[in-house]
């Protein structure tokens, strides 16, 4: 049956629809144009850094030196440029939920250093008004798929965005942090499960880190163990 389906509907690249050898993947040309983050990167946000070697606690980018991060570690699968920008935008605004499968696979690979204490996985939440307008939370879709890839539990409503906030686009870093202050909380029904438990917090894109910081602070306030963050793409200066 699979051979028949493949003959009728051959596998194509998720970005350019060129024929490929496997489903939900990139063709060789798109793969080359996708800025996967490999090698040395910031241990707190995953942004690529010049040099070689494995990231460690002392490996921190300029942004993370200037801004106190409440989480313990962070990683990103892609740099937010070229197809590393097109992919999350297509997922978020183009209803390209088919991109969740390959994106989650890349993120699961990037998450390897963050899995030392069997974390639960939770997405950054959307306010219900924005969720109704968009119809899905892309971070929740990614979190669910990453949980399947890593065989880890996912709590999609661990966090709630209980206060509506204006869109963060075009706002400066300090404004973003101020806008999100107190807007996110832990869902009351999960407090017992959260106590002392490590959390892997998932989002699609990290720009300033304001949303991830507000989410981490909400988790820590209710007794979570170490929080680590994982994003599909990191907006950062070229190394």
Describe the structure concisely.
35% of the residues lie in helices and 14% in strands.
Total count of strands: 6
Order of helices and strands: HHHEHHEHHEHEHEHE
The largest sheet, given as strand count, sense and whether it forms a barrel, is: 4 strands, parallel
Tell me which CATH architecture of the largest domain applies here.
3-Layer(aba) Sandwich
- State the distance separating the first and last CA atoms: 48 Å
Low-confidence stretches: 1-7
Give the count of helical stretches: 10
> Approximately how much beta-strand content do the residues carry?
5-15%
Mean pLDDT: 89
The multimeric state of the shown protein is: single chain
Can you identify the CATH class of the largest domain? Alpha Beta
Domain Phosphoribosyltransferase: 152-235
Protein name: ComF family protein
InterPro entries: ComF/GntX_DNA_util-trans, DZR_2, PRTase-like, PRTase_dom
Domain Double zinc ribbon: 4-65
């Amino acid at each position: 049956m699979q051979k028949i389906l493949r003959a009728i509907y051959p596998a194509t690249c998720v970005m350019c629809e060129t024929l490929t050898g496997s489903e939900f993947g990139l063709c060789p040309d798109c793969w080359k144009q996708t800025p996967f983050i490999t090698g040395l990167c910031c241990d707190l946000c995953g942004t690529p850094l010049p040099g070689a070697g494995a990231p460690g606690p002392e490996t921190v980018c300029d942004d993370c030196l200037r801004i106190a991060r409440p989480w313990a570690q962070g990683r990103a699968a892609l740099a937010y440029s070229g197809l590393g920008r097109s992919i999350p935008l297509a997922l978020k605004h183009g209803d390209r939920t088919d991109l969740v499968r390959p994106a989650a696979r890349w993120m699961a690979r990037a998450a390897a250093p963050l899995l030392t204490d069997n974390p639960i996985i939770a997405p950054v939440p959307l306010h219900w008004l924005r969720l109704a307008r968009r119809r899905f939370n892309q971070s929740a879709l990614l979190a669910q798929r990453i949980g399947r890839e890593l065989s880890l539990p996912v709590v999609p409503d661990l966090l709630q965005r209980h206060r509506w906030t204006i869109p963060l686009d075009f706002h400066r870093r300090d404004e973003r942090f101020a806008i999100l202050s107190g807007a996110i909380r832990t869902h009351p029904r999960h407090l017992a499960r959260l106590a002392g438990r490590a959390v892997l917090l998932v989002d699609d894109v990290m720009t300033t880190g304001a949303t991830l910081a507000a989410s981490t602070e909400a988790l820590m306030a209710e007794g979570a163990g170490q929080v680590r963050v994982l994003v599909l793409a990191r907006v950062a200066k070229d190394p």
